[in-house]
Amino acid sequence: MDDLRTPVQRSAFWADREDHRQWLRTEGRHLLRHYAKARVPNGFATLGNDGTLVDDTPQGIITARKVHCYSIASLMGLPGSASLAEHGVAALLDGPLRDRERDGWFADAAGPSRKKAYLHAFIGLAGASATMAGVPRGDELMQAAVAVIDDHFWIEAEQVMQPSFAADWSNPEAYRGANCNMHTLEACLALLDATDDTRWLDRALALARRFGHEIPSAQGGTLPEHFSPAWEILPDYGSDQPADDTRPWGLTPGHHAEWGGLLLKVEAACLAVGRSAPAWLLTDAIALFDMAVSLGWAPDGHPGMVYTVGFDGAVSVANRAYWVQAELANTALMLLRRTGEPRFDTVYRQAWDFIADRLIDPSDGSWRHEIDAEGALSGVVYPTREDLYHDFQATITPLIPVSASLAGGILRT
């Protein structure tokens, strides 16, 4: 990793300093205030780079993520957050985002669309966080999401999610993917904290084992993302859409880091319920994080983590996405907490310096979602500023112990 500072002593770790922690709290509040502007009658919509609504069409992913984030903010004791979370819960239960005839949720309120595991994982996460925060009807949303996941998406024989269906639940997609299962794992851990039902830990462990342990072990430490239903790697998948926002071609360094963090959360979940945690959870978390840094940090000589690289390690999409830097910081922090190794604090500092220098927009309190290698605003992958999910979570992770879920960690702190 280029241009990293000399490792520091334990007493100097940023996450232990009250000034840094106060900076994170202030930054989180800026984000919460900014994205409250995304509220529309039937949920939450997309903000543009100027901080105003692109249009008033509610988006399923954005609404679910807002419920999750404002539920966490309510748990933290931030006034006004609960009403925003309650608005999102009601929208997901009663509004046009929900398919009242066949059940499940649509991508947006514009009309029927394919029903995706990626979206439903976030609705499960939203319901779990809202339940833990005591948001009215949060449990109703959680139970509705669980029913859809159990009835349609979870493939028991494979212990993974079916990626998508047509709007009427026909035409299951002939594909298996890492991204929707990554966020399903996150949802499983939140559902574990919200319900104390250890079947969610069983599912989380199964997902962690396949994507965080078995696949990287067979692929030289890398994590390909696209597979056939027979679990054959699809090396050309996405070659016609290398800058896709959820299924890009090649390897995604930010996801390597994010999976590493999830392995640490699974380990924490095991210990919290009195289970022995497999040793590979920590070993592979470190390996995935190191691979993320090796593949993604400044491979073109410019600071920051790139979006994607090819299977040969060559940069595919050099632009720096906001969430990639946030997940690098999150996992560096959790590894620092777990191991005490100063090198993780070094990366943590580097990530936050990059975020502060290049991504935080001082004019409105949001983050630029994407910049090019030279630091100019770009929109190849993210033409708008969709939401605060990754960035807000990055301001919370250092404030609590490593926990199965953020909401659960806040409740227990």
UniProtKB/TrEMBL annotation:
Keyword field: Isomerase
Pfam families: GlcNAc_2-epim
UniProt KW Transferase keyword: no
InterPro entries hit by this protein: 6-hairpin_glycosidase_sf (IPR008928), 6hp_glycosidase-like_sf (IPR012341), AGE/CE (IPR010819)
Keyword field contains Isomerase: yes
Residues forming coiled coils: none
Record-stated family: Belongs to the N-acylglucosamine 2-epimerase family.
Record-given protein name: AGE family epimerase/isomerase
Species for this entry: Thioclava kandeliae
